[in-house]
Amino acid sequence: RIFLFPINYMLKILKKIDLTIEDEEILRLLVSQKRKEKTSKATLSNLIKETKALFENLLHPQGMFKIVDQKALKGEPYFEGQDMIALGLCTIGDELENKVSQLSRKGKLAQAVILDAMGSVATESAADFLNLRICEWCQKRGLGTSQRFSPGYGNWSLEGQRFIFSLLPAERIKVKLNQSCMMIPR
Q1: pLDDT (0 to 100) of residue 84
Q2: Inter-axis angle of helices 23-34 and 109-140, to 10 degrees?
Q3: Among 167, 136, 177, 183, which Cα is nearest to 66's?
Q4: Average pLDDT of the residues of the chain
Q5: From CA 144, how far away is CA 6, in angstroms rounded?
Q6: What is the pLDDT of residue 8?
Q7: Which of 64, 70, 57 lies closest to 99, judged by CA?
Q8: Which class for 181: exposed (0-12), middle (13-18), buried (19 or more C-beta within 10 A)?
Q9: Backbone angles phi, psi at 69, to 5 degrees
Q10: Which long-range contacts link 149-156 to residues 24+ away (Cβ below 8 Å)?
Q11: Do 68 and 87 touch, CB atoms closer than 8 A?
């Protein structure tokens, strides 16, 4: 394929991300987290509804992706042999995380755990949205895509995040990576 623009400079920042947050997915996370606790699904469903009132104003989803070619992939053995990849990063902002900490400090642990689960579902929804935009971008250009994957899954170590952060201007969506490869906000 011949491209009329330098691939390494293709960066798309999404300041508006539509989220789909299903109560069933929140409940699935909570049920797997509670393990042998005796909280019923009905009780959890009621707590989810109560906590949702806090939830809506705490989300500020943003994301970015960049398509990079072989030159940018040098030094990252995980992508050996690839012509190009799409690097993506998304966030729901730090307000939800701050609220979870605040609720925990106040001893409102059930609300904190539920809100944290809601944040996980929202973040996954943001990642799905970003992935769809990447697939659409590629499809318009006749490029194929694979399933998305992230550092920390399979045999790609969590340190792979350093590679991603080295190529993306993460500060433009207010995300940082600390020395332990923990994204801030989480």
Answers
A1: 86
A2: 130
A3: 167
A4: 87
A5: 19
A6: 52
A7: 57
A8: middle
A9: -105, -170
A10: 151/181, 156/78
A11: yes
% of the chain surpassing 70 pLDDT:
91
Contact 114, 30 (CB under 8 A): yes
> What is the rounded (10 degree) CA torsion for 136, 138, 144, 149?
-80
Structure tokens at 147: 């399933």
* DSSP 3-state of 167: helix
Give just the sign of the alpha carbon dihedral 18, 127, 185, 104: positive
Sorted by sequence, the CB contacts under 8 Å of residue 171 that are 6+ apart come out as none
Token look-up 């690839």 returns 82
What is this structure's pTM? 0.86
Q: What is the mean pLDDT of residues 88-93?
A: 96
3-state secondary structure 44-55: HHHHHHHHHHHH
Q: Would you say residue 37 has pLDDT above 50?
A: yes
Nearest to 167 by CA among 45, 61, 72: 72
